Amino acid sequence: MFAAPLISLALAGIAAASPAVPPQPKARNPQCNFWANVRDRFINEIFLGVCAQDVHSLVRISFHDAIGFSLHSDKGGGADGSMIKFQDVELTYPANEGIDFIVSFLQPFADDVGISYGDAIMFGTAVGMSLCPGAPRLPGFVGRPDATRPAPDKTVPEPQDSLATIFARMADAGFTPTELVHLLASHSMASQAGIDPSPDLLGAPFDSTPFDFDSQVFLEVMLKATSFPAGGSGANVGEAMSPLPGEFRVLSDSRFARDNRTACAWQANALSQSSMASNFATTFKKMSLLGQTQSKLLDCSEVIGTPPPAKNKQAFFPAGTNHGLIEQACATQAFPTTLSTVAGRATPIPVVQLQNCPTCPTFK
Ligand code: HEM
Fold first, then answer.
1. Residue 237, number of CB atoms within 10 A of its CB
2. What is the top EC class of this enzyme, as a single word (predicted)?
3. 14 Cα to the center of ligand 1, angstroms
């Protein structure tokens, strides 16, 4: 397993000099008072008030934990925290490379606060996303019991898997190809460290605005690719060429944008930030309840804060790109010519690090 190269804010011991966090909602249900405190501890001790690497890592583990589930066979308990409880088993699976990073500080945090690992992952993701510009407000269900068994290997899709394999795995867990595209809005706040571990590419982002939950990743993955990012090792397993310097394209994302089963949903997300966000929220709720019975959980969504508004209501063509580079695969809707283009030449997109985060002013 590769060493996690991106330093967690919490692990880095960055002082709790967090930027001002907007006032958080009070609990009306007295049972949710405890969870309002857990939320504050997440914000102050894990995220330090910003939507950055630790939030991204939480969102990723939320998928890897929950998707260990099958409607048709015994493939794990779903959103149950087994990724943490049975980390000795699950973190050895190739698809979970790099997840050890978030597990290493989420486990002691959950133990100290006194919450189950399943709740730490899903409630923590909802709290983290509430700090991200453009994100939807996610539900805060709590009370997941401890996992009783690890998920087996091969429940988490890998970027080099065929689309048939990925769609079959997602269908086995109850998700259509369109729902998968909705979940992939998460890749709008994402970077890589494991497909190409070259030092220059640690934190190489999937789009030009990796600190925002916006439509850019959908537009930018549709652009004609030109090269592998400089400083990297080139054509790695699971990697596709990208259209912008510094940008990293995941092979499966490239295929989803061009396959007739997913291309229209992909393009629709490129064209509407608001429906992208609401579709993500709906599908994320379903994912966060895999293996759980909603009526047995406590709904403390009222303590989840409202995320800041999206900075860009509409996707744009980054400098150096234009409408002519769109590789459109949706047969039923032409890609509009109305989106704006940033003037000038393409400049390298920086890696995901605090000093490159426009919404993390305290840490500049
Ligand atoms: C076909 C399905 C998917 C594939 C093949 C896939 C693949 C990947 C890969 C290869 C990475 C980079 C990991 C690394 O090198 O560090 C990544 C990152 C990420 N993925 Fe996915 N992913 C999928 C679905 C999802 C879903 C459904 C979610 C959440 C709902 C998600 C959330 C994320 C996030 C937030 C990151 C960035 C993590 C970070 O920056 O630390 N992914 N994904």
1. 10
2. oxidoreductase
3. 26
Contacts of 5 (CB under 8 A, 6+ apart): 193, 197, 199, 202, 203
Q: How confident is the model at residue 326 (pLDDT cuts 50, 70, 90)?
A: very high
Residue identifier of the C-alpha nearest atom 24 of ligand 1: 184
User: What is the end-to-end Cα distance of the chain in Å, rounded?
Assistant: 31
Domains and CATH numbers, the chain: 32-156+285-303 (1.10.520.10), 163-271+311-359 (1.10.420.10)
> What ligand 1 atom has the least distance to the C-alpha of 59?
35
Q: Ligand 1 pocket check: which of 7, 46, 47, 60 to mutate, most ligand atoms within 8 Å of Cβ?
A: 60
The pLDDT of residue 359: 78
The answer to whether 323 is a known catalytic residue is no
pLDDT tens for each residue of 146-165:
999 999 999 999 999 999 99
Q: Is 0.85 surpassed by the pTM of this model?
A: yes
What single-letter DSSP state applies at residue 277?
Answer: H
- 147 in Cβ contact with 290 (< 8 Å): no
